[in-house]
Amino acid sequence: MTESVVSPSAAAQEAWRILLVDDEPTQRLIMARLLKRAGYSVEVAGNGKEALAKIAAGDFHLMITDWEMPEMDGIALCRELRAAPGKGYIYTILLTARDAIEHVVTGLQSGADDYLTKPVIEPELIARLSTGRRIVTLERSLRTANEETRRLSITDPLTGAFNRRYLTEQLPHEIERAARYGRHLATVMCDVDHFKRINDTQGHLIGDEVLKWFCGQLHAGVRSSDWVARYGGEEFLIVLPETNVANAAIAAEHLRTRVAATPFPGVTGGLAVTASFGVAGWQNNVPKGSTFDALVARCDEGVYASKAAGRNCITARPMD
Predict the structure, then answer these.
(1) How far apart are CA 291 and CA 69, in angstroms?
(2) CATH number for the domain whose boundaries are 164-318
(3) Predicted confidence (pLDDT) per residue in 120-163, tens digit
(4) Annotated domain spans of the chain
(5) What is the distance between the alpha carbons of residues 179 and 176, in angstroms, rounded to a whole number?
(6) What would the CATH number be for the domain defined by 8-152?
(7) Closest listed residue to residue 245, CA positions, set 279, 209, 293, 288
(8) In terms of C-beta density within 10 A (0-12 exposed, 13-18 middle, 19 or more buried), how is residue 37 classed?
(9) Nearest CA to 133 among 141, 145, 122, 143?
(10) Which of 50, 174, 209, 234 is catalytic?
(11) Could you give the CA distance from residue 195 to residue 215 in angstroms, rounded to a whole number?
């Protein structure tokens, strides 16, 4: 039995997905075989509308489309593709029997990246696809780098929670959205009790580990729709969309109990850690004109009240 051998270059291209769009079944079959022989993963569509549906459902790096097709031709497909932001850039080659310069210009202006006239010469097509791969690789690398830069700019480097910059940008939007659509919103502020004592007795490295552990406890105890930001030092603020102040107080008590019942494991024998909580929000829908400063100040009042009451407790301060 003969064992098939896949060349390294072909194996490296297997992850590259091409969408082949052509309404003529025979031409589609011939082209698909050619592309698969070159090591590409191929999906096919019979017209532009079908292609857009496949793009919405999948992730393609490259697209080869015929110009003349029923329902939606290649020119309209390219325009629609470029008008709608997608998961990643799709390098597009337009195929046609039209070879006049005005047709080339029309194709490129519609959003196609390259233009080939029929009949297609296989080595030329493969070379054009290699160019497309380089461009898509660069675009996706830049996109990933930009996303990472954005993530780092809004993330607290120690705990992984959102940072204060993100909080001051995003919470006003949450308040505005809730007020506009008549929704609930609440926030919970929490402050690690006796954190200075932890730093003094255990050292700042352990103190940092306590903050990371504490933030992990918060993330594990909230819903996926809630989010946690480091407000400063050992203070964190949790934003609870679609939640009134009474239910936020229940959530805060759940978090308080969770933290108090789970010793920090980073020191021999464990270290008891507690936190004081302040809850603020509206019992009913958020009224228009509500502000970030007023909401956070009310949360802060709750934390101070909890500290004054002996720590390791929660205090709710409903908004007026």
Answers:
(1) 55
(2) 3.30.70.270
(3) 889 999 999 999 999 999 998 998 899 888 888 999 999 999 99
(4) 8-152, 164-318
(5) 5
(6) 3.40.50.2300
(7) 279
(8) exposed
(9) 141
(10) 234
(11) 14
